[in-house]
Structures are given as C-alpha cells and as structure tokens.
Amino acid sequence: MRKLVAGPLTLEYSEGSLWNISNGSEEVIRRIYLVFQDINWTSRPFIIKDEIWEVADRSFSAKIKAQGSHDAKDLSVQLEITGSESGEITYGFSASTAVSFMRNRLGLCLLHPVAGLAGRDCELTKADGAERSGCNS
C-alpha cells in the first residue's frame, strides 16, 4: 500500500484502488475502485500496465493505464486520480475497446465504512447538480 496525503486527508493506494480515506482519526471512505463483473457477476481484476505519479507533501496525482482481464481482456482503461491540498479527491476513468463483451457491471464503486455512519443522515448531490438531504433510507 502506498500512503498518500491530500490536505487534511490520509489514504492508501493499491492496484488502482484508494483505501481507508480518513480525516484525522475518522475514516470517511473505505474504498474507491473500478469494477468489472462478468455475466455471472464474477468480479474480474484489472491488470495495471503503467503508473505515473506526482506526489508532494499534501497532494498527489496519478495517471494509470490498465487492461481488463478474462471476458474483457480487450478493454483499455485510463484512470486519473488526484488529491489536492484542500482535501478534494477526484477519481475518474475512461475506457475503450474495439471488441464487444458481455458484462453485468462496469463502473466505479465507493464503499463507506459502517462504523459511525450507519443510520446517519447524509447529503447526496446527483450528476445534474440536484441535491437531496436525509438519505438514510
């Protein structure tokens, strides 16, 4: 695991995933990662081909090239991950393939820690900018 800092946040990186994002002693996000599940809902790993990192004391950026495996072996993926001094983390990807493949899920997953968050209110901002409060249901 590579230890990283983004302003007040600490976190770890491994194989395309961000882990244990914490603000002080409070874990705020357990994991952010790219997921591919085949037609049987089997999770298939991505193979990291190249990583280019710029790491400072309180910020970082990474450009990562990866390739799908098994059913999606022709899928090329580019991840861009940044952590700023203000504590903002971005995790985005683009992918392309010239060959069709079956899948049940391809996208980003964000896992929240259960301890201390279960049952608490939250605010949700959708891609269109619409906000919703009290999302504990």
Strand order of the largest sheet: 1-2-3-4-9
Estimate nothing, just give the exact number of structural domains.
Answer: 1
Average pLDDT works out at: 89
What is the percentage of strand-forming residues? over 45%
Q: Count up the helices.
A: 0
Report helical residue fraction: under 10%
Biggest sheet: strands, sense, closure? Answer: 5 strands, antiparallel
Can you describe this structure?
- By secondary structure, the protein is mostly beta strands.
- It has one domain (2-133).
- It contains no helices and eleven strands.
- It has strands spanning 2-6, 9-14, 17-23, 26-37, 47-55, 60-67, 76-83, 89-96, 105-111, 123-125, 131-133.
- It has a five-stranded antiparallel beta sheet with strand order 1-2-3-4-9, with no helix packed on it. The protein has a four-stranded antiparallel beta sheet with strand order 5-6-7-8, with no helix packed on it. The chain has a two-stranded antiparallel ribbon with strand order 10-11.
- It is globular.
